């Protein structure tokens, strides 16, 4: 299944706020929540919705998300928390969380166009897994720096998670440590995602 490129508003109207996909909020969100109170969902539906939230927020294909789940399942620690850590430490998400782009798709575009440096080296792979003490900077050039500067000026630096440090005037960010899952940018019940994939894949 390919990456979703359709109407973003349609997804947030169904699944709720997805800050990584779009910063817009559905107007009918409160009305829809009231309607859903009277509608009982199956356990499968609840698991599927949580999985879809994760997929669309981080902008992944179904195959990519399944791959991350299998890696998380083999790692030490709770599978759901490890899964969130893997997704949060992606380069495209780090740029988004630093405020260098307004959404993860825009951060991915910056990376694909080779506007981002990691420790002084050009990295054009959005799925690159960032490590502690790595420095993320904008490539020299007026266009990429002006683009990123606009987002840095409009973002709220006080909301920056503890595993990141931002230096706005230098268009630079520092990865301090591996993220704690409680600092994830999406409010989600990761256990339901684990249950969904555990039933879809062979043990």
Summarize the structure in words.
Residues 3-88 form the Small ribosomal subunit protein uS4 N-terminal domain. Its main location: plastid. Belongs to the universal ribosomal protein uS4 family. Keywords: Chloroplast, Plastid, Ribonucleoprotein, Ribosomal protein, RNA-binding, rRNA-binding. This is Small ribosomal subunit protein uS4c. With 203 residues, the protein is an alpha+beta fold. It folds into 2 domains: 8-86 and 183-200, Orthogonal Bundle (Ribosomal Protein S4 Delta 41, Chain A, domain 1), CATH 1.10.1050; 90-178, RNA-binding S4 domain (Structural Genomics Hypothetical 15.5 Kd Protein In mrcA-pckA Intergenic Region, Chain A, Roll), CATH 3.10.290.10. Helices cover 47% and strands 8% of the residues. It has 9 helices and 5 strands, in the order αααααααβββαββα. Strands 2-1-3-5-4 form a 5-stranded antiparallel beta sheet. Strand 4 and strand 5 form a beta hairpin. It is globular and about 50 Å long. The two termini are 22 Å apart.
């Amino acid at each position: 299944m390919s990456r979703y490129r359709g109407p973003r508003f349609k997804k947030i109207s169904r699944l709720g706020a997805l800050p990584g996909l779009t910063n817009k909020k559905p107007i009918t969100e409160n009305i829809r929540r009231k309607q859903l109170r009277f509608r009982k969902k199956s356990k499968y539906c609840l698991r599927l919705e949580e999985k879809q939230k994760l997929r669309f927020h981080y902008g992944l294909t179904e195959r990519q998300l399944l791959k991350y789940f299998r890696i998380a399942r083999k790692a030490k620690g709770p599978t759901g928390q490890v899964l969130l850590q893997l997704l949060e430490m992606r380069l495209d998400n780090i740029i988004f969380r630093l405020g260098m782009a307004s959404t993860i798709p825009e951060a991915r575009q910056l990376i694909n166009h080779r506007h981002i440096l990691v420790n002084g080296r050009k990295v054009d792979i959005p799925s690159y897994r960032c490590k502690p003490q790595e420095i993320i900077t904008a490539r020299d050039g007026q266009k990429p720096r002006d683009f990123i500067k606009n987002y840095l000026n409009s973002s709220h630096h006080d909301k920056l998670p503890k595993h990141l440090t931002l230096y706005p005037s230098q268009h630079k960010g520092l990865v301090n440590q591996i993220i704690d899952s409680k600092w994830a940018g999406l409010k989600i019940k990761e256990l339901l995602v684990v249950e969904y994939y555990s039933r879809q894949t062979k043990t």
